[in-house]
Amino acid sequence: MASTSAPRQPGTRAAIYCRVSSKVQATSDKESLPAQQRNCEQFALAFAPPLTVEKVYLEPGYTATKYDRPAMSQLLRDALAGQFEHLIIDRTDRLTRGGTGQYGRFVDQLKEAGVRLHFEL
To answer: pTM of this prediction?
Structure first.
């Protein structure tokens, strides 16, 4: 039986990364992981063409000053494996607070994987 849904356009697979520094923040209203995820999902839908969210990486209780975080490490492995073409993050401070060196390293790894980085802001 043929599918009645429209085929996904090439290059529209996306991932979302959400992070909070404390377990309390993970459930607070404005900064919570669900709030960040919701903002990023809305961004994906508004993108032209709309992006299909393939995976969500959640990082509860990890500081952005440290680069080696479990979900971020998995995200980078998946990016290098070609699992998505776009990465959406709520705000830049969700990614890193370790200075331009950490940010540049992350962006370089995404470029190597062919992944475009977007901030919902």
So the answer is: 0.84
